[in-house]
Amino acid sequence: MADYTVIADRQGLQDAADALSRGTGPVAVDVERASGFRYSQRAYLIQVYRRDAGVFLIDPPAVGDLSPLQRAIGEDEWVLHAASQDLPSLRELDLVPPVIFDTELAARLLGHDRVGLGAVVETTLGITLAKEHSAADWSTRPLPQSWLEYAALDVVHLIDVRDALVAELAEQDKTELAAEEFEAVRVREPRAPREEPWRRLSGLHTVRGRRNLAVARALWTAREEYARAEDVSPGRLVPDRALVAAVLAEPVSKQDLARVKEFTGRASRTQLDRWWAAIEAGRATSELPPERAPGTGDSFPPPRAWADRNPAADARLKAARAAVEARAEELHMPTENLLTPDLLRRVAWAPPADGDAASIGDALAESGARRWQIAQTAQLIAQAFVDSVQESVTAPDDAS
Fold first, then answer.
1. Which of 80, 104, 75 is closest to 90 using CA atoms?
2. Which of 129-138, 324-333, 366-375 is least confident?
């Protein structure tokens, strides 16, 4: 068990902020949301720990303005695990770190086999954490004591884990590259919304015809609007498979829709008028979606099609991928952390005209690669591209 203080009012927050200001060293921060239960990704609990200050479990909906917390820790290093998941929820509350240390990302860069919080704590400190409440509905009030104890344990060891990983990074000469990765996560802009998010409906591939796709789109939109208004996860109202089943059944009336046994979910019948109105709207619209999602301007085909569509690019990709994978193995880190597959595909499909390491590096940088990634891979990729051409030229002779 860990000692902790629950903060649910303004005075409690100010007291916690004062204690944290007097604490020493980095600040461990974690966020609990209600993913899978609520529509929003808001924080329903924020856990903060600092040496010589203690553990504070802050209830954002109850406290409201968290500016005293930001003032208390806003100039210090924040230690998070899988920071990319928590930073958006923290930013919603105007909690913004000046610098971060991401224990999950550090473990990846170090080549740890398992990088979940429990695994990293166990590997670095020899302490086993229970994870039975990781998928809980943290919007529940009051929060059970066992959940609070679990939440406190999520941060109380983070500073010790950070210190152990700092030493490992230094041993592997990865301190600077890790700092680049942490900063990239900290300043990363949110992804632009998908142009047609409804196409992510699970099972949509079974729907045929533009009119039926319009119905699917209308049902998805109706569910999304209702979920947002009720702050409930859409799938808890009506699962994806139920929406698709309603489309495939092609009901001729509201009563016919109600008889579709696969049309399930807690709001499938209570909001029957809503779903039937969506079906009618989808059937009546003149704006029919294309059978397939339109591609983006800089898109390229999946790699499995490259051999037929662009044999030279296929050869470049295969040669460069092997070289990058070998370097990642030398560095003891996953290949995708050294260079994401998307970045490699982009430069292989449309390489710069010069084709040297400098121009390859510029192309990678333009697509978002970090300096250390470019330093580790640009020359390898440039040489692999040259080798791929030479192999294609010599292949007929080798075969004869």
1. 80
2. 129-138
216, two tokens: 């699917």
Cα distances (angstroms) measured from residue 363 to each of 48, 117, 209, 317, 353: 40, 35, 40, 15, 11
- Say how far apart CA 387 and CA 384 lie, in whole Å: 5
Helix axes 83-92, 175-187, angle to 10 degrees: 40
Torsion over CA: 184, 96, 160, 151 (sign)? negative
Q: Tell me how far apart the alpha carbons of residues 246 and 217 are, in angstroms, rounded to a whole number.
A: 12
List, edge to edge, every strand of the sheet that includes 45-51.
5-7, 54-58, 45-51, 24-32, 77-80, 99-102
Q: What is the DSSP string of 3-51?
A: --EEE-SHHHHHHHHHHHHH-EEEEEEEEE--BTTBSS---SEEEEEEE
How far apart, in Å, are the Cα atoms of 245 and each of 46, 204, 241? 39, 10, 6
Nearest-angstrom CA–CA distance, 192 and 188: 12
* Residues ≥6 apart with Cβ < 8 Å to 336: none
Q: Residue 80 has what DSSP assignment?
A: E
| Of 280, 321, 284, residue with least CA distance to 303 | 321
Contact in structure between 264 and 242 (CB atoms under 8 Å) = yes
pLDDT digits (tens, 9 = 90+) for 24-78: 999 999 999 998 999 999 999 999 999 999 999 999 999 999 999 999 999 999 9
Q: How far apart are CA 63 and CA 9, in angstroms?
A: 5
Summarised one tens digit per residue, pLDDT across range 121-140 is 999 999 998 777 778 999 99
Contact status, residue 256 vs residue 279, Cβ threshold 8 Å = no
Pairing of strands 5-7, 77-80: unpaired
Give the mean pLDDT of 282-297.
85
pTM for the predicted model, two decimal places: 0.90
